[in-house]
């Protein structure tokens, strides 16, 4: 009898799995990269980090039980990514690579639930594995250009069975906690949306009969706070740089030009021939982001030229915005 009891005691002490070990480690930053202000405002952008600071190694259960927990609490002194002028880009943090499991700042989220830790295989094998986090920007942020950053504090605490004996008996629990920080960044670049209708002079039998085109507008919605200039190229058929613009039909030309506002100052692409954002007729000044700035212009066909042969005359002028 004594011999049998001794064997039974040995069997109960033999572990059926290697001890698992978790620890808090330094994170890998999450970067959204460089995005235009228009993209940031209109489209949710994804980012992620493969290492949010919790690392585990070892062999354990194939599935966690309801008594096993891996809590992560994300907090920050900011309400999102903050830029050089104080603008904020909001974003949401997710526990997996879908939008199914969002985290609430300041509230502990149990990564042991919903199969998240199990799917990662965090506690199976001998190679250290880390918990990832996923992020997505919130649509509607009208912000200035610049670098936007936030440093998150992540408090990890866990309580799980770290060793299994014969008969699936838990031989011990790993209970610990720690805090790490995660840097998130995004760079916003200047951009514009441009509305520039075509110019149509209509038709006439002679050059002197063409009516000037007046009341034309170009609408620009450029990055909030951006100072910029707007230029119009000389077109594809100009006589020379800074010379008259010309439309073409076959081998024949029809000279015309485009002028600032309602005046006679030619609108060009170089130096003072450009127009500054402060020169807009509507909402002059720096860019508004969501609102339009309107530039008026007029165009006319020069009447001091010979009337060319009948035909359809065309030209292409490039509008460029410089920041």
Automatic annotation (TrEMBL):
InterPro entries in the record: Spore_coat_component, Spore_coat_U/FanG
Protein name: Spore coat U domain-containing protein
Domain Spore coat protein U/FanG positions: 17-153, 179-318
Coiled coil location: none
Signal sequence segment: 1-20
A Pfam entry, by short name: SCPU
UniProt keyword Cell cycle present: no
Organism: Pseudomonas tensinigenes
Keywords, comma-separated and alphabetical: Signal
């Amino acid at each position: 009898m004594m011999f049998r009891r001794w064997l039974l005691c040995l069997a109960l002490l033999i572990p059926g799995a290697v001890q698992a070990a978790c620890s808090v480690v330094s994170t890998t930053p999450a970067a959204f990269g460089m995005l235009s202000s228009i993209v940031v405002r209109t489209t949710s952008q994804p980012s992620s980090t493969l290492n949010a600071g919790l690392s585990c190694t070892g062999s354990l259960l194939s599935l966690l039980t309801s008594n096993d927990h891996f809590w992560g609490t994300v907090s920050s002194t900011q309400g999102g990514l903050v830029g050089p002028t104080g603008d904020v880009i909001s974003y949401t943090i997710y526990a997996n690579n879908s939008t199914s499991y969002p985290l609430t700042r300041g509230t502990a989220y149990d990564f042991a639930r919903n199969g998240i830790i199990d799917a990662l295989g965090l506690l199976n094998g001998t190679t250290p594995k880390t918990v990832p986090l996923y992020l997505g920007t919130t649509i509607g942020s009208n912000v200035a250009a610049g670098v936007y950053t936030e440093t998150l504090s992540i408090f990890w605490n866990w309580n799980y069975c770290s060793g299994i004996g014969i008969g699936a008996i838990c031989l011990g629990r790993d209970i610990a906690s720690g805090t790490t920080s995660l840097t998130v960044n995004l760079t916003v670049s200047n951009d514009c949306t441009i509305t520039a209708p075509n110019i149509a002079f209509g038709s006439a039998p002679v050059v002197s009969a063409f009516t000037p085109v007046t009341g034309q507008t170009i609408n620009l919605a450029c990055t909030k706070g951006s100072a910029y200039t707007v230029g119009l190229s000389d077109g594809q058929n100009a006589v020379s740089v800074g010379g008259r613009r010309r439309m073409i039909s076959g081998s024949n030309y029809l000279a015309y030009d485009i002028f600032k506002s309602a005046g006679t100052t030619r609108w060009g692409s170089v130096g003072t021939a450009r127009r500054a954002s402060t020169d807009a007729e509507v909402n002059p000044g720096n860019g508004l982001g969501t609102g339009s700035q309107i530039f008026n212009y007029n165009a006319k066909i020069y009447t001091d030229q010979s009337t060319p042969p009948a035909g359809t005359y065309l030209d292409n002028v490039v509008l460029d915005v410089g920041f």
